[in-house]
């Protein structure tokens, strides 16, 4: 398997599925919604530089209002939440996530809170959220195996890549048995930069994943990027900047979903 490409050239695939989602992303820090600044690497060393989000969908202290708008635009069955305070080991936004879970009981809340081992997940699981485990946070391969064995299919693994490759246990790239049913391919250096998803690495992951659902994250800048991710066979794309900027719209997403349903 090769998941080490640094380029994102256009790739055309005939593999399709009607089950595709544009999943909106909320980054939480200090109790407000924040956003990556374009051009910044999004690994742990830069997350401290995220600033309160400026968006037409609500003030940064009203995460529920912003989430409601994003879910309406995307028709998504899931909302991805990154608790940056927890990821940076500087507290957490557990209470705010509880409010989001209550506000959207029919929406799956995918939460990345810097989980490194099984014990870290317990309090979050009480909210009924789907635990997203980032490879950059995993304490060891043994720790990941305990999480995977405990949660089975009800966990999402985010394979976190920066310019040097995978952040986390390299063994995760060697055997798909280590993967759960859902995988996020996270290009950290593309977060907030709108430079396009890493389609080469995504294509490699899809070839390796078998029956597993693969989601692309990082770099979505416009609707063409969404179509590329969908056309290559991914099950979804995580998006934030393009939704707030209006370069991906509700009308475009609705048309794509209708087209895919008609083809199924």
Explain this structure.
It is a single chain. By secondary structure, the chain is α/β, with parallel strands linked by helices. It has one domain (21-263): TIM Barrel, CATH 3.20.20.70. The chain contains 10 helices and 11 strands. It starts with 20 loop residues before the first strand and ends with a helix. Residues 4-16 and 38-45 have low confidence and may be disordered.
Q: Number of helical segments? A: 10
CATH third-tier fold name: TIM Barrel
Count of strand segments: 11
Average pLDDT score:
88
Radius of gyration, CA atoms, in whole angstroms: 17 Å
Order of helices and strands: EEHEHEHHEHEHEEEHEHEHH
Under the CATH scheme, the architecture is Alpha-Beta Barrel
Quaternary class: single chain
Strand order of the largest sheet: 1-4-5-6-7-9-10-11
Helix fraction by DSSP (H/I, runs of at least 4): 25-40%
Shape field: globular
Q: How far is it from the N-terminal to the C-terminal residue, by CA?
A: 29 Å
The number of domains is 1
What would CATH call the class? Answer: Alpha Beta
What characteristics describe this protein?
single chain, 264 residues, alpha/beta, TIM Barrel, eight-stranded parallel β-barrel, 11 strands, 34% helix
